[in-house]
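BUG-135 | component: ligand-complex export | severity: low

The export step for magnesium ion jobs runs without errors, but we want the raw record kept on the ticket for reference. Input record follows.
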Amino acid sequence: MKKVLFIDRDGVLIVEPVDHQIDELQKLEFIPGIFTWLGKIASETDYELVMVTNQDGLGTKSFPEENFWPAQNKLLKALEGEGVVFNAIHIDRSFAEEKLPTRKPGTAMLTKYFSEEYDLKNSYVIGDRITDIQL
Ligand SMILES: [Mg+2]
């Protein structure tokens, strides 16, 4: 069975800005140690790495796609350089007030992991918010 590390993005891999939105490259700042330690996890363990992130209003006027992807792609490329490749990336684009089941701590984006293929008992969520703990 496969074990998974469900990894939050903002506040874990990169610094979350005060306005919670990384919508320009200038705002992209890596969390210290992330390349060393995630690289170690990737090379020395057999966890699948899965990014799970809430990006409020992505694709709407308040957070256009073209402002999101440059920083996201730069992050992925930098991690890839250290051997860190995500098996899957799940992005919820809703706002908290919509209360969608896809938004963390909801699990509607993650139902494929609820199968006998996955060892959820030995899988973990790494995040910085209460909603990550709840997930
Ligand atoms: Mg976070």
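Assignee comment: Attached the raw record above. The chain has a mean pLDDT of 97.
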